[in-house]
Design goal:
Largest sheet of chain B: 4 strands, mixed
Oligomer: heterotrimer
Order of helices and strands of chain A: HHHHEHHEHEHEHHHEEHEHEHHHHHH
Number of domains of chain B: 2
Chains: A alpha/beta (about 400), B alpha+beta (about 170), C alpha/beta (about 575)
Shape of chain A: globular
Number of helices of chain A: 19
Structural class of chain B: alpha+beta
CATH class of the largest domain in chain B: Alpha Beta
Largest sheet of chain A: 4 strands, parallel
Number of strands of chain A: 8
Helix content of chain A: 40-55%
Number of strands of chain B: 4
Order of helices and strands of chain B: HHHHHEHHEEEH
Strand order of the largest sheet of chain B: 2-1-3-4
Distance between the termini of chain B: 28 Å
Strand order of the largest sheet of chain A: 3-2-1-4
Radius of gyration of chain B: 18 Å
Chain lengths: ~400, ~170, ~575
């Protein structure tokens, strides 16, 4: 099994710069600075790396779009506001190997033509914030950050910015609002970040895991990377396994392994009997087929989404109605409250699901929920509201009898 | 009445942040976080100070404070307990944890205990799903919880406090 | 130009046009709620969504710009279905007190629900139960009715730049609030009431005093006098079935008499009086007889005055000490008028009808008691007067035109244009010219200070002295002139500021709406009345001559100073 991101994670004190350098760290940056920014982007494009935050957009293309924008200055922003329930992968990287992210951020900045990078990290990651700040300080002392990095003409500053407890800020445009000192409410798109991002300037925004793949791609070539895992979306992927499994945790595996393999071979099997899984956290739809291959396309074909790779396993003693209720509660609490479908829709869905959970459901509300889900998908401004009803809709479609069983007689 | 110095312990930190980030709105959230950390809440003087220094309308500052879960204008307890209630923790018994906490702390629907010692918040995912159910007390992580463990942890905290107050 | 099709019809519009505006070209009005012409699009209600071929989701048409080859469907089944559910969701969270709501028959949400054919509200759940904000003497907010469209916030921040309301909390807890929920009465709200105009529902309204006025009218021991601001006559008709732009001065006086007011005067008289005082003050400042700085600012807009007291206290000395016409009228009604008629001033109840919510605040200012009583007891808005007329069953349309009582009701054209932006300036110049030169200004129409441009300037030659003047309406526009003055760089001698866009014709107490074209028409009505009046200069008003001869003495005299002038207070920022 090939590990890219967690390759060196067992080396003691990897978060110290000398240890990181000794294990080959900052080599990719040295190499990248000898390439042209265009060549760096080409290499990333060749790797066919796609975003690991959930949307699976090709990273090289995103960088190219940003680089091509004429407006200045440009920014590289790392989305480290990991908050989707079931997701704890970026934490592992930032805690154990903060320099990997720092190195990637400098390379990315060089590639897109940004002299400033920002890591927006969720406020609850106290330890990781400390480690990143320390890593940045060390990198600056060694000349990997600052004026004329490693004798090149490239200057770059990197800053850590803490979130303050709002899941929606993981939505990229809400994240910019938050960075700019506002309420984390999503912006209308277009314009997209590549044209109008942080401070209204061209911005590339990438997830931690995505960025951390870049040093390996520069070191080994995009061609090498593109041969790993599933041909449709190559590379390794972090799977955050949680819920009713014996060994929950983060597993870096090639894309395309099956859900069954993940649970049985890595997760130590299900606690109890398998009932269903949410392969992309509470924003995704349930899947019941454990043979589904865990790559972006296969999971989508199965009617769900891989998202950030938060695989939550649910056993047969759990009521799906209660699962749906738990999922929607999260969205009610985390909706920014700006657009009507999300603000009002999540609240009403929560009330309806609450009635079902209490055995006082109404038959006609089952269709109403499906209808509401459709309208929320169609009209909500951002991904949060669009996806808020996925779990509920799939629960109704796959386990309608459980809802019927909670109807008030 | 607290002394002037203690009341505005957040000021030097805020000034430092503004020096670093400039008198721009971008400095707002870091400043608010600093105040929250220093004062346990964001008092009105801090709002006024920020309005004057970075020129953001005070109602906007209030809007930002109330948007973010980690910021508040109401004084929080010495220990802020954030207990996760999202699906992975829920599946592993978070409701039982919350009940145990409410019971052990005697919350009775309040957010903060009357002695100002503990604030209890149900929060969305803390990124500790591999240790579900989980909570953090200030910056301290507690995972793989059960009701008994929770009672033990809270008991310890209470004991520590008694010790400091010299109640033993 | 961008070519696209909307519902199959080809249309070409300039780049940057929104889909919603482009749709108007093919005779389609897309339903909307949070969008309002004159404010930045917000795109939050999603009611204006349309289907665009090739897009996975529906697109908010207020905020999305057209693109080449776009194929738009404005009312496909998918779109109509979504709109219905969005309104259904809003209704599910809305109090069901439409019968007694202030916005009955004028509610945009109710209208949308009807037009979009919402048949049923299938969601049942918790309704909000927030406390009302009743801290302000002018404005009451009911957050329970709020649909969070953000229009009030946008007008307060972007147009008026007062910035005292904003969104707080998150998700379903989201609410429009003032700082720390202290209430409008405890923050730097100017009471301009533009938020009332933009609110689509009944979440913001004036603090009504209709019942208090009825009580006074029915009390035989009280002697109730009434004054009406210039802008009322240009707008009252709209509330009573007449088209925008109908002057109803005569019917207004007639209706007030029939409501039972003991004597019907007219604020226009006091506007002429204001010009006498303010014109003399200006001349005094220019000639150096009055040791106060230039430019002199007008002082008749109470929203502007409170704005100045909070945001620009350093300009306090620049503001004319003249009370507003309402507050000049008030003390005169309890001194001059009481003396003339021998009525015990204690029994006089002084009511004003104003286009303005800030006037309610102004009437209660502690210093407004120079008559020995509260100078103005009750302030009704145009809307409140219209409702009283309706409640009394008065057939407004068939009323004869009747004049106000001349003693404090005769007026010139200079007074009537007070209601429009630039009007005070124009009126003042007509009199100031005479004061300086001893001659009458020949061309009375000072066109550069008329109209709806945000900031207007003019230079008037007064016997070789180039008097430079500027006019701003809307507090956002005013800031430009204020900052210039604060920096010591203002080239002007005299500056007129009106808090509301359009001037008083667009005041917070006028018929609902944020339609600048309608406000402009109301202004034109006043200029038309001015043109038609024989007397067009304040100093020509015989009742003004009389009040000075019989009571006040002379402009800026001792009595004037006591009754007609005021001072200002620096107010804290919250």
């Amino acid at each position: 099994m090939e590990r890219i991101l967690l390759k060196d994670v067992d080396i003691p004190n990897l978060c110290e710069i000398d240890v990181y350098i000794d294990s080959g760290g900052y080599k990719a940056l040295e190499k990248a600075l000898k390439m042209t920014p265009k060549e760096v982007i080409e290499e990333v494009k060749r790797s066919r790396l796609v975003g690991r935050g959930g949307a699976a957009f090709p990273t090289g293309l995103k960088w190219e779009f940003t680089r091509k924008e004429k407006d200045e200055p440009k920014f590289l922003v790392c989305n480290a506001d990991e908050g989707e329930p079931g997701t704890f992968k970026d934490r592992v990287l930032m805690k154990n190997n903060p320099h990997l992210l720092v190195e990637a951020m400098v390379i990315g900045g060089y590639a897109i033509g940004a002299n400033k990078g920002v890591i927006y990290i969720r406020g609850e990651y106290f330890e990781e914030i400390g480690r990143l700040n320390k890593a940045i300080k060390e990198a600056r002392e060694k000349g990997y950050i600052g004026e004329g990095i490693l004798g090149s003409g490239f200057s770059y500053e990197l800053q850590v910015y803490r979130g303050a407890g709002a899941y929606v800020c993981g939505e990229e445009s809400a994240l910019f609002e938050s960075l700019e000192g506002g309420r984390g409410c999503a912006r209308e798109r277009p314009p997209f970040p590549a044209q109008y991002g942080f401070m209204g300037k061209p911005t590339a925004i990438n997830n931690v895991e995505t960025l951390c793949n870049v040093p390996a791609i520069i070191n080994n070539g995009g061609e090498w990377y593109s041969r790993i895992g599933s041909p449709a979306s190559p590379g390794t992927k972090f799977f955050c396994l949680s819920g009713h499994v014996n060994k929950p945790g983060v597993y870096e595996l090639p894309t395309g392994i099956t859900l069954r393999e993940l649970i049985e071979e890595y997760g130590g099997g299900v606690k109890g009997e398998f009932k269903a899984s949410l392969p992309g956290g509470v924003s995704s739809s349930l899947v019941t087929d454990t043979d589904v291959k865990l790559d972006y396309k296969s999971v989508a074909d199965a009617g769900s989404m891989l998202g950030s790779g938060a695989v939550i396993v649910i056993n047969s003693s759990t009521s799906i109605v209660d699962v749906a209720k738990s999922c929607i509660e999260f969205f009610v609490r985390e909706s920014c409250g700006q657009c009507v479908p999300c603000r009002e829709g999540t609240r009403r869905a929560n009330e309806i699901l609450g009635r079902f959970a209490g055995g006082k459901g109404k038959v006609e509300d089952i269709d109403l929920l499906l209808e509401l889900g459709e309208v929320m998908y169609d009209t909500a401004r951002c991904g949060l509201g669009q996806a808020a009803m996925n779990a509920t809709i799939s629960a109704i479609k796959m386990f309608k009898d459980e809802f019927m069983g909670r109807v008030e007689s | 009445m607290k002394s002037e110095g203690l009341r505005h312990a957040w000021k030097p930190k805020v000034d430092g942040i503004i020096r670093e980030l400039g008198k721009t709105r971008n400095a707002l959230l870091p400043c608010l976080e600093a105040v929250q950390q220093e004062a346990g809440c964001i008092p009105q003087e801090a709002i006024t100070y920020l309005r004057e220094t970075i020129e953001v309308p005070s109602v906007d500052i209030y809007g930002v404070i109330t948007f973010y879960g980690m910021l508040t204008t109401e004084k929080q307890g010495k220990y802020v307990i954030r207990v996760c209630d999202s699906l992975p923790c829920y599946l592993n018994g978070s409701r039982e944890i919350i009940e145990a906490l409410e019971d052990e702390l005697g919350m009775n629907g309040r957010d903060t205990t009357p002695d100002g010692m503990f604030t209890l918040e149900r929060v969305a995912c803390l990124g500790l799903c591999d240790k579900a159910p989980a909570m953090i007390i200030n910056e301290e992580i507690h995972g793989d919880l059960n009701a008994e463990k929770v009672r033990g942890i809270i008991g310890m905290k209470k004991k520590e406090e008694c010790g400091w107050k010299g109640y033993y | 130009m961008v070519a696209l099709t909307i519902n199959g019809e080809h249309v070409k519009v300039p780049g940057g046009t929104s889909i919603m505006d482009a749709a108007k070209e093919v005779h389609i009005n897309i339903p909307h709620l949070c969008y309002l012409e004159g404010l930045e699009p917000y795109g939050a209600c999603r009611v204006c969504v349309v289907e665009v071929e090739g897009e996975r989701r529906l697109i908010p048409s207020c905020i999305r710009e057209v693109s080449e080859g776009m194929k738009v469907h404005t009312h496909s089944a998918r779109v109509r279905h979504a709109r219905r559910m969005l309104i259904e969701l809003l209704l599910a969270n809305h109090p069901e007190d439409c019968f007694t709501c202030e916005r009955n028959q004028k509610c945009e949400l109710l209208k949308l629900a009807y037009e979009i054919c919402v048949g049923d509200v299938r969601f049942e759940g918790e309704k909000p139960s927030f406390e009302l904000d009743e801290t302000s003497p002018s404005i009451i907010r009911d957050p329970n009715k709020c649909v969070l469209c953000g229009r009030c916030i946008r007008v307060c921040h972007d147009v008026q730049t007062v910035r005292v309301i904003g969104f707080a909390n998150r998700g379903p807890e989201t609410k429009v609030v003032t700082l720390l929920e202290n209430g409008l009465g405890n923050v730097e709200c100017t009471n301009c009431g533009q938020c009332i105009h933009v609110c689509p529902v009944g979440a913001i309204k004036e603090r009504s005093c209709v019942d208090e006025v009825w009580t006074a009218l029915e009390d035989p021991k009280k002697h109730v006098v009434v004054q009406e601001a210039p802008a009322i006559r240009a707008a009252l008709g709209e509330e009573l079935g007449l088209p925008v732009g109908t002057l109803v001065a005569g019917k207004m006086h007639a209706a007030l008499k029939r409501l039972g007011f003991d004597v019907v005067f007219d604020t226009n008289f006091a506007a002429d009086l204001t010009i006498m005082e303010e014109g003399n003050e200006l001349v005094g400042r220019i000639t150096g007889k009055i040791k106060k700085p230039l430019p002199q600012f007008t002082s008749c807009s109470p929203g502007w005055i409170k704005f100045m007291e909070h945001f620009y206290p350093e300009l306090m000395e620049n503001v004319s000490t003249c009370k507003s016409p309402q507050q000049m009228f008030g003390p005169l009604s309890k001194t001059y008028y009481a003396e003339k008629t021998g009525i015990d001033p204690e029994k006089v109840v002084s009511v004003s009808v104003m286009p303005c919510t800030a006037k309610k605040f102004e009437a209660q200012r502690a210093e407004m008691t120079d008559s020995g009583y509260q100078d103005v007891d009750y302030v009704l808005t145009t809307r409140e007067l219209a409702r009283m007329i309706k409640e009394a069953g008065i057939d407004f349309l068939t009323l004869p035109d009747e004049p106000a009582e001349p003693l404090m009701g005769m007026y010139t054209g200079a007074a009537t244009i007070f209601g429009a932006t630039g009007g005070v300036m124009e009126a003042a110049l007509r009199t100031a010219y005479k004061l300086v030169t001893g001659r009458e200004l020949e061309s009375l129409d000072i066109k550069p200070v008329r109209g709806m441009d945000g900031v207007k300037t003019a230079t008037v030659d007064v016997d070789g002295l180039e008097v430079k003047v500027a006019v701003a309406h809307g507090l956002g526009n005013a800031r430009k002139l204020l900052n210039e003055t604060k920096a010591g760089k203002s080239p002007y001698h005299f500056i007129e500021i009106m808090a509301c866009p359009g001037g008083c014709v667009g005041g917070g107490g006028q018929p609902y709406g944020f339609d600048m074209a309608a406000r402009a028409i109301r202004g034109e009505v006043l200029y038309k009345e001015d043109k038609e009046l024989t007397l067009r200069r304040s100093h020509e008003n015989p009742s003004i001559k009389k009040v000075y001869d019989d009571f006040l003495g002379k402009p800026l005299g001792k009595k004037s100073h006591k009754l007609l002038h005021t001072k200002y207070t620096k107010r804290e920022m919250t």
